[in-house]
Design brief:
The chain is mainly β and 305 residues long. It is 9% helix and 39% strand.
């Protein structure tokens, strides 16, 4: 993913590229008892961490620095367009924490626009799957253990999440608009503030380190119970994988002092062999602690070829 992830949830996404969504699951997919308050219940890696609490803007960019010129530096800092395009599939695994509650996650992505996410927390397993046209998800926290077809709004979101190049790479062909919104600071570092308006009219800000050209912060808003709430994501611990740089730590919340979600990536595999069956409608995921299936009800095992 072009951060994507990135593309977790976002996702991780989508969380770990240019950050279409730092978290893989929507707010209402998680137990509200472990979310401090509505303002802090941000997307779980869909995955979508957006923000408010803007820092005081520094003087605007000079005329010589255009958004496209800065994006070219950003792409080069990630490893270059050719290496990014050479990634045909990706698997990200790690741990996501909500306060004292945490659990493992795995996100699998494959061109074009295919995604499979799985998260286990509080002995409950959630899945989000998209095959490029149709999507399915479950929500065991409200009794929906069986995966159900996604709504039209959910499909709009997951289409962006499953694009692990992210919304900034080739943004014009994706119907997005980008502009340079001046300079700012993140933890005493000078950053470029890039404003992106996607084809649905949603606005996000990406703050890139002026020196390294790596993403340090992502800002936007998240709809929750009819309200638009600010969300921020901070990207640190960049490491190189296959000649590309990825943030292995993503912290999110309503502000820098109200971080309530932390993603720590353990491993990123580039171009793993992922069977397309992973992106088909999923079966009900086994819940930890549930009894094993009755062998008599299972088809006979196929002998190895």
């Amino acid at each position: 993913m072009f951060v994507s992830t990135y593309r977790l949830l976002p996702t991780l996404w989508p969380l770990f590229a240019f950050v279409s969504s730092p978290l893989p699951y929507p707010d209402d997919a998680l137990p509200t008892s472990h979310l401090p308050r509505p303002a802090a219940t941000m997307s779980f890696m869909r995955l979508r961490n957006l923000c408010i609490a803007l820092l005081c803007l520094l003087p605007g960019a000079t005329a010589a620095q255009t958004a496209d010129e800065i994006l070219a530096k950003i792409i080069a800092a990630r490893g270059g367009r050719d290496k990014l395009r050479a990634v045909r599939s990706e698997r990200i695994s790690g741990t996501i924490s909500f306060g004292d509650v945490s659990g493992p996650f795995v996100v699998e992505l494959k061109r074009p626009l295919k995604m499979h996410m799985q998260l286990t927390v509080q002995n409950q397993t959630m899945v989000r799957v998209y095959d490029g046209q149709s999507g399915w998800a479950n929500n065991p926290f409200v009794g929906k253990v069986n995966p159900e077809a996604m709504t039209e709004d959910e499909l709009k979101n997951i289409t962006e999440e499953s694009d692990f190049d992210g919304p900034l790479l080739d943004y014009k062909t994706k119907g997005n608009q980008v502009e340079l919104a001046g300079k700012d600071k993140v933890n005493d570092k000078n950053v470029w503030r890039i404003k992106l308006t996607n084809k649905n009219g949603d606005v996000r800000f990406y703050l890139f380190d002026v020196d390294s050209s790596l993403l340090l912060k992502w800002e936007g808003k998240r709809k929750y119970e009819g309200q638009e709430l600010p969300v921020e994501s901070y990207f640190t611990d960049y490491r190189e994988v296959g000649g590309l740089k990825f943030a292995f730590a993503i912290d999110s919340g309503s502000s820098a002092t109200d971080v309530n979600q932390k993603i720590r990536i353990d491993k990123i595999d580039l171009n793993p062999n992922i069977n397309d069956a992973e992106f088909a409608k999923p079966t009900t995921p086994p819940q930890p602690g549930s009894p094993p299936p009755n062998p008599a009800s299972q088809p006979p095992a196929k002998p190895p070829a």
